[in-house]
Amino acid sequence: MLEERKTLYRRLDDGKIDKKELRERMKKAGKILILSNLDVDGTEIYELYKGRETVEKMFDTYKTVLEADKIYLHDDESVFGHVFISFLSLYIHCKLEQILKKGELNRKMTPVDLLFKYGKVYHVDLGDRSMVTEVPEKVRNLEERLGLNIFPKVVRS
After folding, report:
1. Which single residue of 44, 54, 60, 103 could bond 40 by disulfide (Cβ 3.0 to 4.6 Å)?
2. What counts of helices (H) and strands (E) characterise the chain?
3. How far apart (Å, rounded) are the C-alpha atoms in residues 11 and 8?
């Protein structure tokens, strides 16, 4: 809204609009008009509109973070596989965002940051048995804050 007001004042200074037109346009500044043929409450239509932002954000993540918009494949099966794996990746990315939001960490780290933190811990398969490498204290604290409980508890004797 601030940017819109600056533009209107700039247009007034440039002589492109007069004071009367400035006042009229200022009344509408920062407001949106949604036309719909749905027979539902305006609040519900606005919520649908806001939900569109989530979808657009997912497509942006799909293209930028996952770099999945570049497909150099020649047969249908390969394209399907690529899109399917990209969809699963996007699904996991969204789930990690939800986990971070629930733990109130979404402003401090991204899902990619979370994966890098957890990437410091390895599950080692030794054939007849397996083990988890030492979990750094910062990662254990992060896990506790997020409430994931994926690492085995350490019992010291």
Report:
1. 44
2. 6, 2
3. 5
Domain ranges of the chain: 1-31
CA 146-151-154 angle, 5° bins: 115
> How many Å apart are CA 27 and CA 70, to the nearest integer?
44
Question: How do residues 87-108 score in pLDDT, each as one tens digit?
Answer: 898 899 889 999 999 999 988 9
Considering the entire predicted model, what is its pTM? 0.58
pLDDT tier for residue 56 given thresholds of 50, 70 and 90: confident
Q: Look up residue 6 and give its two tokens.
A: 């600056």
